[in-house]
Amino acid sequence: MGTNRRYCGHGINQLFHCTPNVPHYAANKAPYVMKPGNTFTIEPMITLGDHRDKHWPDNWTAVTRDGSHSAQFEETLLITEDGVEVLTAKPGWKLGDGWRNTSQKAPEASGSGSQNGA
Questions:
Q1: What is the pLDDT of residue 97?
Q2: What is the sign, positive or negative, of the torsion defined by CA atoms of 90, 93, 98, 101?
Q3: Which of 50, 60, 81, 116 stands 20 to 30 A from 102 (CA)?
Q4: HSE of 109 in the Cβ direction (CA atoms, 13 Å)?
Q5: Looking at residue 106, what is its pLDDT?
Q6: Distance CA 79, CA 85 (A)
Q7: 108 or 88: which leads in pLDDT
Q8: Can you tell me the distance from the alpha carbon of 55 to that of 64, in angstroms, rounded to the nearest whole number?
Q9: CA distances to 17, 25, 81, 84 from 30, in Å
Q10: What is the pTM of this model?
Q11: Residue among 53, 55, 56, 73 at smallest CA distance from 2
Q12: How far apart are CA 21 and CA 31, in angstroms?
């Protein structure tokens, strides 16, 4: 079982695919810390076998190199002053309590990131 490392989530701004890149695997080297106003996607490709992929001749369809099953989904999130809003959630759905560790304050973000409406 694995997570494809070629594809990642991304910021959403005036450009659809922009920084920051959001890797979906542990021990990644993504330096960015999200802050209120950031809008981004999470869209992991989870595999039952090899995490490496190849493309079909249409240059769009991605499959695992070993032919094992995989699944991919995408959600869009907005960081708010109070937490996170899942913009692609079904109307009325709310993110449950306990989704974050409130005992640690996140460090201040550095550099430019995706700003909603910026």
A1: 59
A2: positive
A3: 116
A4: 15
A5: 42
A6: 6
A7: 88
A8: 9
A9: 16, 10, 22, 19
A10: 0.69
A11: 53
A12: 10
Kindly tell me if the per-residue pLDDT of 108 is higher than 50. no
Residue in this structure with the two tokens 């079982």, named with its chain if needed: 1
What is the C-alpha to C-alpha distance for residues 94 and 86, in angstroms, rounded to an integer? Answer: 8
What are 12's two structure tokens? 């959403």
Average pLDDT over all residues of the chain: 80
Question: What is the C-alpha to C-alpha distance for residues 9 and 86, in angstroms, rounded to an integer?
Answer: 14
In tens, the pLDDT along 58-73 reads 998 989 999 999 998 8
Site of tokens 């494809």: 4
Extended strands (E) in 1-118: 2-3, 9-11, 18-22, 39-42, 45-47, 53-55, 62-64, 70-72, 75-80, 83-86
- The amino acid at 104: Q
pLDDT: is 38 or 17 the higher one?
A: 38
